[in-house]
Specification:
seven-stranded mixed β-sheet, 2 domains, 343 residues, Rossmann fold
């Protein structure tokens, strides 16, 4: 359960966590991804849910599919999905590609991806694990295209990760990058919380402290011996929870129920920083463009309930035409748009 809220909590709450709980520094996969049964909360269209043309989010998802497919020139090609999570976008792109290989540093995620592929009957996709921050388990020039969705910033050194992705990409190949810059968290949203249920009697309270100027975030994860619902009730009688409510006094009250404390630092390069890195690494062309997911969402809004396409094939035909255009349109780098880089 994600709960984002602005507020001015006690400035030394993070110092208290460091001093009283001595959190263990860890990687992203050990911080959260190895604990999640579904990274998406079983919400992904096609992968977990039947496609529903009446839902805007489902159009958004199809827009993302064709964004990655067209931006990588991936039709009938060999593609790498770096950090597939629950198998996204690997499993929705695979029917259009020759082969898709997903690589993830979380063995849990690799297991879930493989299970989803088997359940869906997709045979031209495979998933393997590697140790984050190390050399990828592929030869030079192995892939025609690479898809990276909110994954590069989860590695210890995003620039070195990009260097590795450059190495395994074929000359002329394309990488399409969706990333979480920190620009959306300015004006009081630098600090917020996220509650992740870990079962009937345990949850993880994640407290974010973002440094927008230096493009990094510290995430403090407190595993608590109570359910997600219980934690929310303890924080708020209304069910509305914010960063403000996670005070030092509250943490002191539940300290005996905190079974684990972790801290994870993630680097979140802005679009401007990413473009600079990609050029330094050697990509011959770097394009910051508009994205297919937003275009598909806007297309959904143009229809009425009466004239909106109802079957998946008709929806795809409508979306494809728009996505082909918008993914080639230059977007202002200040908006931290998706990026295509060509080797």
């Amino acid at each position: 359960m994600i709960i984002k809220s602005q507020g001015n909590n006690e400035k030394n709450i993070f110092n208290w966590i460091e001093k009283e709980l001595n959190p263990e520094s860890c990687s992203s996969e050990d911080f959260i991804y190895n604990e999640m049964e579904s990274q998406s909360g079983y919400s992904l269209p096609v992968i977990y849910q039947p496609f529903d043309s009446t839902k805007r989010w489902h159009w958004n998802d199809r827009g993302s599919l064709y964004d990655f497919l067209y931006s990588t020139n991936g039709a009938e090609k060999k593609l790498l999905d770096f950090g597939p999570g629950d198998g996204w976008p690997s499993l929705i792109v695979a029917p259009f590609a020759k082969e898709v290989i997903g690589v993830d540093s979380s063995e849990k995620r690799v297991k879930i991806c493989a299970e989803n592929a088997k359940r869906m009957g997709i045979q031209n996709v495979s998933f393997i694990s590697y140790k984050s921050g190390t050399k990828l388990p592929f030869e030079d020039n192995s892939f025609d295209g690479i898809m990276a969705a909110s994954s590069i910033e989860q590695t210890p050194d995003p620039k070195k990760t990009l260097e590795e992705l450059y190495r395994v990409l074929k000359p002329g190949g394309r990488i399409r990058i969706f990333y979480e810059a920190l620009s959306d968290y300015k004006d009081g949203y630098e600090r917020d919380i996220w509650i992740e249920g870990l079962g009937e009697s345990s949850c993880k309270l994640i407290i974010f402290n973002r440094d927008l100027e230096n493009e990094y975030a510290l995430q403090y994860g407190l595993t608590i011996a109570m359910s997600e619902e219980e934690l929310i009730k303890n924080l708020s009688t209304s069910g509305e929870v914010s960063f403000d409510q996670v005070s030092i006094s509250f943490l002191e009250r539940i300290k005996c129920m905190i079974t684990k404390a972790q801290v994870c630092k993630t680097i979140h390069p802005s679009g401007k920083t990413l473009v600079s890195w990609l050029k330094e690494i050697g990509f011959k062309e770097v394009l910051a463009t508009y994205n297919g997911r937003s275009a598909a969402t806007k297309l959904f809004d143009l229809y009425t309930d009466d004239n909106r396409p109802s079957d998946l094939n008709s929806v795809d035909e409508a979306i494809k035409k728009v996505v082909k255009i918008v993914t080639e349109l230059e977007a202002p780098i200040e908006s931290d748009p998706m990026i295509t880089a060509i080797k």
